[in-house]
Structure formats: C-alpha cells, structure tokens
Amino acid sequence: MSERKVLNKYYPPDFDPSKIPKLKLPKDRQYVVRLMAPFNMRCKTCGEYIYKGKKFNARKETVQNEAYLGLPIFRFYIKCTRCLAEITFKTDPENTDYTMEHGATRNFQAEKLLEEEEKRVQKEREDEELNNPMKVLENRTKDSKLEMEVLENLQELKDLNQRQAHVDFEAMLRQHRLSEEERQKREQEEDERETAALVEESRKRRLLEDSDSEEEAAPAQPRSALRPRPTAILDEAPKVKRKVESWERSVGTLGSRPQLSGLVVVKKTDLDCSIQRDLATPSAARNGKTAEPAPQAPGTSSLSQLGVYSDSEDSSGSN
C-alpha cells in the first residue's frame, strides 16, 4: 500500500526497456467504458424508453474501414435496461452527433430528418444539373415562375388589405392629439375644483372654530367680575370669626350639646358697658343713627367664653 503513492520508482542499473515483451492485441479489440446515452431512444424489442443522459457500462470499439478526414469512428454497445437486448450506435464527426445503428430507434429527431431530406434533394439536383445542361435551364425557369407567382400572391394580399381597411394616419394622429388635450383640460378642471373645495372647507372650519371660541369667552367675563381675586373672600371674613374658628379647630365646640349653654350666663361689668358705649358713640355720630350694642358672634360657643363667663346665679348668691 505504501508504494501506490510513490512518484519515483527504483530502476536497477541493468534495466533494459527493450527486453520487456510487448503485448500483441488485435486492432478491433473492445474496451469497457462508462458513458451516458447521447439521445432519447426506444428499444425495438420491448419498447422501453431510454432517456438522454442515462448511464451505461458500454463496450467501445473502433469501426474498421471507416473514417472522416482521418478521424476514427467508434462504435458503442449497450444493453436495454428492461430486456437486456443489445443496442449499438456510433459517432458521426461529420455532423458532430451520434447515429443509431441497431436495436433501437431515435426519438425527437423530426427536425434533423427534415434537414437531411432537404440536403438530399439539393444534392440530387446538383448532380442532375452537373451532367445535363438542359436540366439547369428547366430548373431556372421553374424557379423564376415560382418567384413570380409568389410576388403576385403577395400583391393580391396587399390590395385586399387596402380595400378592406382604409386607414387615415393623419386623422388618427389628430384625433389622438385632441383626446390628449381634452384629457389634460379635464384633469386641470378637476384639480381646480378639488382645490376650491378644500379652501372652502378650511374657511368654514375656521369660522366654526372662531364662533366656538367667542361663545366660550362670553360667559367667562361675568364669572371673573363676580370674583376678581381668589383670596378676596379672606378679606371679607371678620377677624373675630377667624379667631373663633381657629379656637374651635384647636379646642373643639359644644354645639352638639345645646343644653349646656343654658347653665352659664354672661357676667356684665361696668367696665365692659363703658367700653361698649365708647366704641358705639363715634360710629353712631358718623352715621347719624343711634348706637346699638354689638351682637354676639354666631359661631361662638359656650366653651370658648368660659374665661369671661361667671358662675350661675346660685353660685354668686352663695358668695
């Protein structure tokens, strides 16, 4: 196994290649080669179709006494894939193709057969003209007569077409130009109409928005006139009321028990009466009215006035 990859073989010093005996083989010997079918064929024995490109183990031999310009022609033997019948074909260097020889028929070669028939007819005609000058004159007369007939038939067809169809190319071009202008004018009018509709719609939308904004702004003015400042209500409340509310938030109220308010009475002193009279005199003089005693704050509870209230009449009598 190691010698199969060796590139340089060993030759002894006394090696003489002329002493090697030559193998004498016949010239028509056959070789086994691997090939593909060169064309589609059908077996004559069983009718099996063999497509182009199917691989075979074929026997190859050189055809004796046949050559083309010094090129040898080879014959191949294959077997049908169904009935094992022998099929043979050989090379055709003249036409760069293969020719079927025995055992099958070639398919799909109608065009090739037509070309071969034309070539055969042309070759026979040339052979006749070469040996018979009168035949040349007859063939030329036939050809000229056939050509004249063809021209006459063509002219008749042209005349028939002209009678059946009178086409005015200028009128066709003019009509096409007019239709194109009308189409462009129609498209322009549609564009102008759409633009005007869009402008009108935008104007209406703007008017609606302006009217809505005016309606919303109109009732907002009286509301602002009623209360110009958010903190104005704080100035309107009296200071005494704010003090009372602060006391109630810190201490509490006895408003939920009205029966307790009757247990205490207000002790009025001479000092309180004099202070109240002095405060009421200037205001009455300015207004031109008699002074009235100041009312008690409505939110004042009995608990908040415990500091200025005295005991009940029974307690004062006992003292």
From TrEMBL:
Keywords: Coiled coil, Metal-binding, mRNA processing, mRNA splicing, Nucleus, Spliceosome, Zinc. Residues 179-188, 200-209, 236-248 have a biased composition (Basic and acidic residues). Residues 179-262, 279-319 are annotated as: Disordered. InterPro entries: Saf4/Yju2, Yju2. One of its GO terms (biological process) is generation of catalytic spliceosome for first transesterification step. Component of the spliceosome. Present in the activated B complex, the catalytically activated B* complex which catalyzes the branching, the catalytic step 1 C complex catalyzing the exon ligation, and the postcatalytic P complex containing the ligated exons (mRNA) and the excised lariat intron. GO terms for molecular function: metal ion binding. The gene is YJU2. Its main location: nucleus. Part of the spliceosome which catalyzes two sequential transesterification reactions, first the excision of the non-coding intron from pre-mRNA and then the ligation of the coding exons to form the mature mRNA. Plays a role in stabilizing the structure of the spliceosome catalytic core and docking of the branch helix into the active site, producing 5'-exon and lariat intron-3'-intermediates. May protect cells from TP53-dependent apoptosis upon dsDNA break damage through association with PRP19-CD5L complex. It is found in: Nucleus. This is Splicing factor YJU2. One of its GO terms (cellular component) is U2-type catalytic step 1 spliceosome. Zn(2+) binds at residues 43, 46, 80, 83. It comes from the Eukaryota. Residues 107-154 form a coiled coil. Belongs to the CWC16 family. YJU2 subfamily. The keyword Magnesium does not apply. Residues 298-307 have a biased composition (Polar residues).
